[in-house]
Amino acid sequence: MTKSTQARAEAAIANLGERATEARRRTLETLLKAERPLSHTEIEAKLATRGALDRVTLYRVLDWLVARGLAHKIEGHDRVWRFSATAVDALGHAHFCCTACNKVYCLTGIKPAFALSLPPGFRLGETDLSLRGTCPDCQPTCAT
Amino acid sequence: MTKSTQARAEAAIANLGERATEARRRTLETLLKAERPLSHTEIEAKLATRGALDRVTLYRVLDWLVARGLAHKIEGHDRVWRFSATAVDALGHAHFCCTACNKVYCLTGIKPAFALSLPPGFRLGETDLSLRGTCPDCQPTCAT
DNA sequence: CCCGGTTGTGTTACTGTGTTGCATGTCTGG
DNA sequence: CCAGACATGCAACACAGTAACACAACCGGG
Q1: Is A13:A28 a contact under the CB 8 Å cutoff?
Q2: How far apart are CA B86 and CA A6, in angstroms?
Q3: Size of interface A-B (CB pairs under 8 A)
Q4: Which member of A49, B18, B79, B110 lies 3.0 to 4.6 Å from A79 by CB, making a disulfide possible if both were Cys?
């Protein structure tokens, strides 16, 4: 299974007929390997272990991945963007942000069925459901 | 009705038994007068018309208002915080962010009834429903 | 093989939002 | 009036993200 993420990264990029550069492969691989959305800084740190990538390049690669539909961008509650390659097009898709450690998780089992009555003149694009609370790593004392 | 916002600002602060300073009154008044959440910069601009307030002081005043429950803080999609004093404790409360002009609106008629099944270990605090689309000011060509 | 255009990367410097630390003002209660 | 607490202003900072520009790597055609 360790090869899977590498291979998937390769394949996904090749699939587009675009250049699979070192930076893109490694970035996508990092995102695929992560079990939760990562911030730019976190990605940078993970990549730095074997030959760092420039900050700006990483921004560009991430935008590129998002534009190509290989990743998606999530706004956290700390004004930092996070990126995920795992649940790219899962519908009924919400984000959980831990108020203690600020980590973000993608939740895919959510069916947001809200009663929407927009005032006239508003045209709805997409909706974004974000939940806050504490994650398993940050549970205070008593068990669940 | 013009006196109402001033008076309400005064009263709300006095009600807490806290110091109703110039900065606080004017800031709260500005928020009450606004029909939609305002960013720090917007508030600063509005206040600047008659004797500017220091940037930092404004940040502090806003935090103070939030801490006292007189305003609430909204995270926009542009990494900017917005503040509103109007729908402070309206439940079933969502935010609409215009993708064209980046203005944010509070929507109060929303009942987010989503099916929630959090993975074990997660504890839910608050939820935040944010909508994106175009606002009345930014409708492309055709009328509604 | 070279050459020239396109695409990707690195470097530097910048913007804009928000914060911290410290000095100065201002209010309040004895 | 004085002392302490609280509020404000100023300056410097931290951090995420962006723009401009130059260089490097790739790819096609002669």
Answers
A1: yes
A2: 51
A3: 125
A4: B79
Write a three-state SS string for chain A: CHHHHHHHHHHHHHHCCCCCCHHHHHHHHHHHHCCCCEEHHHHHHHHHCCCCCCHHHHHHHHHHHHHCCCCEEEECCCCCEEEECCCCCCCCCEEEEECCCCCEEEECCCECCCECCCCCCCEEEEEEEEEEEECHHHCCCCCC
In tens, the pLDDT along A94-143 reads 889 998 888 899 888 777 666 677 888 999 888 888 888 999 988 765 54
- Cβ distance of A114 and B115 shorter than 8 Å: no
C-alpha angle B13-B130-B47 in degrees, rounded to nearest 5: 35
Distance CA A21, CA A111 (A): 37
Q: Edge-to-edge, what's the strand order for the sheet holding B38-39?
A: B38-39, B81-84, B72-75
- Mean pLDDT over B51-60 rounds to 92
Residue A30 near residue A50, CB atoms below 8 Å: no
Nucleotide nearest to B57 (CA to C1'): D8
Chain B closest-CA separation from residue A135 CA (Å) = 5
Question: Which of B82, B129, B134, B137 to mutate to test binding with chain A, by most A CBs within 10 Å of its CB?
Answer: B129
- The answer to whether strand D lies under 7 Å from the CB of residue A91 is no
- Using only C-alpha atoms, what is the Rg of chain B? 17
Which residues pair with residue A127 across a beta bridge? B131
Q: For residue A93, give both structure tokens.
A: 């898709």
- The 10 Å Cβ neighbour count of residue B131 is 22
By C-alpha to C1' distance, C8 is nearest to: A21
